[in-house]
Amino acid sequence: xxxxxxEDDHASRLFLESLLESNNYDFRSAENGIEGLNVFxxxxxxxxxxxxxxxxxxxxxxxxxxxxxxxxxxxxxITAFGSENYAIQALHLGANNYLKKPVSSQELLxxxxxxxxxxxxxxxxxxxPGKLINRTFSVxxxxxxxxxxxxxxxxxxxxxxxxxxxxxxxxxxxxxELITNAIEHGNLGIxxxxxxxxxxxxKLSELFDERVHNKKFKNRNVKxxxxxxxxxxxxxxxxxxxxxxxxxxxxxxxxxxxxxxNGRGIFISNFLFDKIEYFGKGNVVIATKYIFEKE
Length: 295
Fold this sequence. Notes:
Structural class: alpha/beta
Strand content: 15-25%
Strand order of the largest sheet: 2-1-3-4-5
Helix content: 40-55%
Number of helices: 10
CATH topology of the largest domain: Heat Shock Protein 90
């Protein structure tokens, strides 16, 4: 997995370089958007970590240039306090995620580990001949959080969606976020505060393991039902948890909350799919991607 760092601040760039080097990641660095775009063309990275505010070409301009190339690279925007609205713009322009400064090493490493599993398991199904009228399937699995990327890869293969690679990446990342939420906060009952504290202490795996083996949670499952017709692809994700008031999640578009971890996965999923709907007690979510005729 190849990673491109684009960061004009020397100290921030050095921190990211040291973190990636100490964890044996293959990476290249650039000091601004123009240099970053040149390295991107030469290096063909799987992931781009880019600051927003940079001289010559900023992170948003770099993001637009990358998406204009129809690249399926995963782009993570790094933003500081006072630049919250840029994170919203970045997601609208096709960024896959965002991180706040100062970047948490634990949060970044966990994100890269998740993306590495997705990238290493990338499928390449051939387009189905003819015109697909409809298709359905269902899959059910235990709350095995370490297997989420493999589960999503299997779902993507069975879904056999016929859209461009960039949109496929968005859907795959979105399913990872929603299934992660169903397992962590639904089946395992881990609150956002508990998750943040565990992340800060580097003990997230221990927290997951404790809940997975707890008799109250260990027999809970997640079910994914897939449906497609001529108009849309649709995934319904149902967990066995106690549910939650999803309307009470702080609005991440509010500058006071946008850089918080709380609710970020749900928030980002709204940019990765065309429609996200919660039902019942909050343990059923339907993610929809509409199909548009190819010209």
